[in-house]
Amino acid sequence: MTLAHSGTTLPPSSPASGPQAQSYWSKAFKRLRRNRTAVASGVLLVVIFLACFAAWPWAAKMYSQTDYQHTFAGPSVKHVLGTDEHGRDYFAQILYGGRISLTVGFLAASVAVCIGTVWGLVAGYFGGRTDAFMMRIVDVLYSLPYILLVVLLTLVFGRDWRVLFLAIGAVSWLTMARVIRGQVLQLKAMPFIEAARALGLPTRRILLVHMLPNLAGPILVYATLTVPQAILQESFLSFLGIGMPPDYPTWGALAQQVTQINSIANDWHLILPPCVALSITLLALNFLGDGLRDALDPQSR
Amino acid sequence: MLTFIIRRLLISIPILIGITLVSFFIIHLAPGSPYPGLEMNPKVSPEVRELMKKAYHFDEPLPKRYYMIMRDMLTGELRSFKDDQPVLQKIGNRLPATLALNAVALIFTVAGAVPLGIYAARYRGTWRDQAVTVISFMGIALPGFWIAYMLLLVVVGQMHVPVLGMTTYGMLVPNSGVGLADRIWHLFLPSLILSLGGIAAESRYMRGSMTDTLIQDYVRTARAKGLPEEQVVYKHALRNALLPMITILGLMLPGLLGGAVIIETIFAYPGIGRMAYDSVLSRDYPTIMTLNTITAALVLTGNLIADVLYAVVDPRIRFE
Q: Is A7 a member of any domain?
């Protein structure tokens, strides 16, 4: 046990500890900066985030401001995207819904990342029967269409925003678990992990201090790619009418609402915005995730 | 090979049992019942309530209920809570429609993804490659339901061409050539939209696979001996680049079947996807469980076929 503390004197053979760590991340950052699409996507995402979150008080105020004299108004100076069936400013609604969509996406993705990382870490590190059993469970869940599982989960546990992001998170961690497990299997064979084991470090310490930092790259990449998936799944559910509760107009829910209105064919200013906002955000997140993968894992090109 | 297939089939048994366990416990751990309202209704006497409970086996403990539902499922005795029809028969009526939808979507996926991937790989790093990348990312980012809805607006709303359902309503000559054409047309749009996400994702894989193949030594040899570029790409490289696609297509099945839930709902297409959605909404437990099991069995079979096909086309693969 006395040796446990000397773990810090291990040679920095891992790419993420010691002075090399900075060079790995700064190299990755340099690579990312050269990728113009990824940078543009990142900037765009920051703008979307700022707009949705900073405009929240204004959007919330406009959300409750109905005006039945001017329903379905076309775009004008006062209402940039026109008004909806209750005469509410549509642009404010897009921003209002954006915050909810983004929040659900990020919360669901963090749930997925947590489950997936722990699952893959434990399965890969302990190996043998534990690994076989845990990965069999992943196989089981993989062969179920996830959308049915989410529908089932949201229906049985009620229509609540917390249930929704937990349910989406609970079905989105499978790929993550597989990727992390693969990485752990590679890491496990590396000399520095062997050394840590030989020193008798507690398993928890090996996993958290020596394994986890080396997994930061893939975790970051797949977290970025899970967010758009989660947002998309929420919009599917909203479109089926079983997404967020009615008080939470996400982009998917806004798109669905438009389809419920009769006079639809002419209301292009209501049909396009929620889906354009959704698509741009998803596109930017995907491009950023792709750029991150190229930057953090140059071999995968 | 035969031992491999048998072993894979044996492995899939615990997976299928796992699926039934997962579906069973998610359904039964949840509050709510398939007969909401009856429990609260003061006009329903306690005897009737007991009768209802008995009819649905709700008076039994959970493990016994699981045993009973499994026994009935395997013997084909399981009946829907909703209309008391045998579940297998209900599903059997609808399965062909979904299989047709998925098969056509799969064809569209291959027909779209492979040429796009080859094109992007041949012009790697140029604007053509980037254009394909943008298109494929758009396919991933644009929600399928929205594209479906737009198409409905244009095709049905503006052009007044019927696309909903499996046949045109009031079609009186279902067995004639016109009837067949009508069915094909009703299959076309839903499967096209169902395949969009797949085309986007698969074309990325195809591009990667083709890029890896084009830098192989034998491709250089083929070029060196002066073969035309077309022949190098389509005759020498393509065969090898297509190999990994077989596995990836197998992995696509759950997504297709899941996507069918949304597409079938939008297009009012009578397949098992919409049936699954409806049965979840009405808490038709026997139908949900059977559908989940059948879907999983389809997915596992698809993966097995993919693995076997891989071995058939690539003699280097050996099963130990």
A: no
3-state secondary structure A98-137: HHHHHHHHHHHHHHHHHHHHHHHHHHHHHCHHHHHHHHHH
Q: Average pLDDT for residues A222-245, to the nearest whole number?
A: 84
Break chain B into its structural domains and give their ranges. Answer: 97-267
| Rg (alpha carbons) of chain B, rounded to whole number | 24
Place of tokens 């900073």: A54
Whether A143 has its CB under 8 Å from any CB of chain B: the answer is yes
Handedness of CA A284, A285, A289, A292 (dihedral sign): positive
Tell me the ipTM for this assembly: 0.74
Determine the pLDDT at residue A7. Answer: 37
Q: Which two tokens stand for residue B15?
A: 């997976």
* pLDDT exceeds 80 at position B264: yes
Structural fold of domain B97-267: MetI-like fold (1.10.3720)
Residue B261: closest CA among B194, B308, B311: B194
Higher pLDDT: A43 or B73? It is: A43
Query: pTM value?
Result: 0.80
The minimal CB distance from B137 to the residues A145, A271, A283 is found for A283
Residues A51, A283: Cα–Cα separation, whole Å: 17
Q: Which CATH number covers residue A238?
A: 1.10.3720.10
DSSP code of B174? T
Confidence of residue A266 (pLDDT cuts 50, 70, 90): low
Contact B209, B117 (CB under 8 A): yes
The DSSP output letter for B79 is: B
Q: Which of A158, A239, A279 is closest, CB to CB, to B141?
A: A279
Question: Token pair for residue B283?
Answer: 């808490």
| Beta carbons of B19 and A142 less than 8 Å apart | no
Segment B146-183, tens digit of pLDDT: 788 778 777 776 777 777 777 666 665 666 677 777 77
B140 C-beta neighbours (distance < 10 Å), count: 20
CB contact under 8 A, B143 and A235: yes
Residue A18 domain-assigned (yes or no):
no
Contact between B292 and A265 using a beta-carbon 8 Å cutoff: no
Chosen from A48, A138, A144 to mutate, greatest number of chain B CBs within 10 A: A144
Q: Of B258, B299, B303, which has the smallest distance from its Cβ to A147's Cβ? A: B258
| Three-point CA angle B168, B173, B179, nearest 5° | 55
Chosen for mutation from B26, B146, B204 (greatest number of chain A CBs closer than 10 Å) is B146
| Interface touch A147/B143, C-beta < 8 Å | no
Distances (CA, A) of B54 to A114, B46, B51: 42, 12, 5
The phi and psi torsions of B40 (rounded to 5 degrees) equal -90, -20
